[in-house]
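Hi there,

I know you've been waiting on this one. I reran it after we fixed the sequence typo, so this is the corrected version. Both the input and the resulting structure follow.
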Amino acid sequence: MKSFGTNISSTTSFILTGFPEMKNLEHCLAALLLLLYVISILGNSLILFIIKEEQSLHQPMYYFLSLLSVNDLGVSLSTFPTVLASMCFHITETAFDACLSQMFFIHFFSWTESGILLAMSFDRYVAICNPLHYSSVLTDVRVAHMGLFIIIRSFCMVFPLPFLLKRLPFCKVNVLIHSYCLHPDLIRLPCGDTTINSIYGLFIVISAFGIDSVLILLSYVLILHSVLAIAFKEERLKTLNTCVSHICAVLIFYVPMVSVSMVHRFAKHAPEYVHKFMSIVYLFVPPMLNPIIYSIKTKEIRRRLHKMLLGPKF
């Protein structure tokens, strides 16, 4: 028994479910998830190494890309311990406080990624709409302040979540539907009033993801307006091409995130495998695809990769 203030919770641990309905394919699924982890960790580590070593990449856009890669590593490493334990070693039980800690880090990195994508859209806006003042607007100090603000904002938003859950009595079956701890999954289990938790969760989703997505959309409306004013079609295409990587990163982050939120809030009675699949896409796909997209679409990174793989003579 655990005492939290005036409430008593009988839950000292949670059971992580995974995919029992796919028992015959469990090893294949575990191998697939491990492959996604390997690609994500190696890809993002390689991006960080290239940006560090390549002097020409010491620019604001690539500083934000470095922050995105660090964040994607954080997302992967946050889920890795429990996914590895439950899927590969069939250790499904996780301690109460460990589960809350994992929930904090997963959501912290999600909110941070949204802020980084907004900062990257601002970088593209300044580079295209106000190129003469790019170096004076996005100085190294200002980029560092923006990164620090994004991290502090995410921390302040997510920090109350574990405490809001910990004050509640857990007297239902302590089985989670995922192999990791997510707030929408945990909030189903308390037998107390979760109104405050739901309101606060909705508030931070709207105030972070909602505002960020609107500002990103606004930045691209202004970018498109500026690009259409360019007289030559080739120049327009060349300018838009500098935004392709970022647009892809925004789409592969926000589309699964919105889908997960919609499923959890408006399709609560959908089969569990739908919730699980959407969460896997949301947490596993962006960290894997981001380094691939930027490696393919960024000339400087692609050139450095060719040198590393094919030798300096290339």
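Quick highlight: The two ends are 65 Å apart (CA to CA).

Best,
R. S.
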